[in-house]
Design a protein that fits this description.
Blueprint lengths: L4 H23 L2 H8 L3 H28 L2 H22 L7 H26 L5 H30 L1 H23 L15 H7 L5 H30 L2 H25 L5 H14 L10 H30 L3 H5 L1 H29 L3 H12 L1 H21 L1
Helix pairs in contact: 1-5, 1-6, 1-7, 3-4, 3-5, 3-14, 4-5, 4-7, 5-14, 6-7, 6-10, 6-12, 9-10, 9-12, 9-14, 9-16, 10-12, 11-12, 11-16, 14-15
GO molecular function, one term: transmembrane transporter activity
Subcellular location: Cell membrane
Membrane topology: Multi-pass membrane protein
């Protein structure tokens, strides 16, 4: 296969698609699996917390390997460790909830290694002009895997019942991770460049007038929301419906809507619309949570999920593109792209850890549904914080595009 930039982009999307499929196939029901063993919100929260600690540390520590040596091997190792994680879950069985920290740290290392390498390769094969388009395709692919994976795993778990269903789902995920690892060998080896600067993310944030300061702040706000929403929504859907098949159905419907919205955003969402898109998207993401204040049920959660899937591209596409655009502004910033990817992830991690700690503290005081909804509403306003700290930069960018 000729390794043209277009082929490499398609291959990278394919590797990411398989990795996403394996992740959502098993990961959608992972927290439900743990919850069935021990009904404890704190346990679920600490599992998510341990993952994020490992993700951030993996980005920072593996940055040297990715910049100075072979980033493709980091990508493959991330896939391999994901497989090892599910082997450990299979081995632990119903006792998995007793090993929250080692399991969470293992999964976090897998996620960190894969996404560090992926983000660097993604930056190298895209530019400011085609990045929104590529992000649209990436969102489209994520939606497709979100349709197939949870629906299939929910059907298998419900049909086979109990531990057997979960074991089959975890084994299928292992096989898909293996396919992703094999396909990754067709990706072109990327050359290493320069020495890794361990403390550059902190130096940059301390530098007066740094363009990364508002971007890092916006990423912290993004992390505050997604750190909790990423695991709590699926768990709430299961608790409301009391069956895995309904959670699979929820994922199928919301991912179908997301597929359409990301396709539309990838086709028509232009850089000059980023500020208005982020503001409108942030407001609408809060609005879709409000119906839960009246009733927490499968129906209202589905309404929120559909609304979120419909409006999230307005927020996520600018958030993804603006930081990667900043990496490519000058030759010097391009040479430090690994450090900037690490800075980006550490900012997200900080927000996610903060959001999860708020979740753990609040749910340790009260587990009532009303408290949970108010918490979701409060954390759901975080995208507005992203827009507030980025609005000046977004307006400058739009003025440049219009000139």
């Amino acid at each position: 296969m000729k390794k043209t930039p277009e082929n490499q982009a398609a291959l990278l999307l394919a590797v990411n698609g398989l990795n996403l499929l394996a992740s959502v196939l098993a990961g959608t029901f992972l927290n439900v699996y743990l919850w069935k063993a021990r009904q404890d919100y704190g346990m679920i929260g600490w599992f998510a917390f341990s993952q994020q600690v490992a993700v951030g540390l993996s980005f920072w520590l593996a940055g040297k390997w990715v910049k100075e040596h072979n980033k493709m091997n980091a990508l493959r190792l991330g896939i391999a460790v994901s497989g090892i994680f599910y082997l450990l879950v299979l081995w632990a069985g119903e006792s998995a909830s007793s090993y929250i920290w080692p399991l969470g740290l293992t999964l976090g290392v897998a996620i960190g290694l894969f996404w560090l390498a992926y983000n660097i390769i993604y930056f190298e094969i895209t530019d400011a002009q085609n990045r929104d388009h590529y992000n649209g395709w990436m969102g489209l692919l994520g939606s497709l895997t979100g349709i197939v994976g949870p629906f299939l795993s929910g059907w298998l778990i419900s049909r086979l019942q109990g531990q057997r269903g979960y074991r089959v789902v975890f084994i299928v995920s292992l096989c898909i991770y293996g396919a992703a690892a094999v396909l990754s060998f067709f990706l072109k080896k990327r050359k290493s460049e320069g020495a890794y600067l361990w403390l550059e993310p902190w130096r940059e944030l301390r530098r007066s007038g740094s363009a990364w300061r508002p971007v890092a702040g916006a990423l912290v706000f993004q992390g505050i929301r997604e750190g909790v929403f990423s695991f709590l929504i699926g768990l709430l859907v299961y608790l409301a419906a009391q069956t895995e098949s309904k959670l699979g159905q929820f994922a199928l419907i919301t991912s179908s809507v997301s597929l359409v919205s990301y396709y539309a955003a990838g086709k028509w969402f232009k850089p000059r619309f980023r500020s208005a898109g982020m503001l409108g998207g942030g407001i609408l993401l809060v609005a879709v949570i409000v119906p839960l204040l009246w009733k927490l049920s499968y129906g209202t959660l589905l309404l929120m999920g559909i609304g979120t899937s419909l409006f999230i591209p307005l927020y996520m596409l600018p958030m993804t593109s603006i930081s990667f655009d900043l990496m490519g502004e000058t030759a010097e910033s391009v040479s430090k792209r690994v450090e900037w990817v690490v800075l980006r992830e550490l900012s997200l991690m900080s927000g996610r850890l903060l959001g999860i700690l708020v979740f753990i503290c609040v749910l340790s005081v009260s587990r009532s549904s009303q408290v949970i909804i108010v918490l979701l509403l409060a954390l759901g306003t975080a995208p507005m914080g992203s827009w507030l700290v980025l609005r000046r930069r977004l307006h400058r960018r739009e003025a440049g595009d219009m000139s």
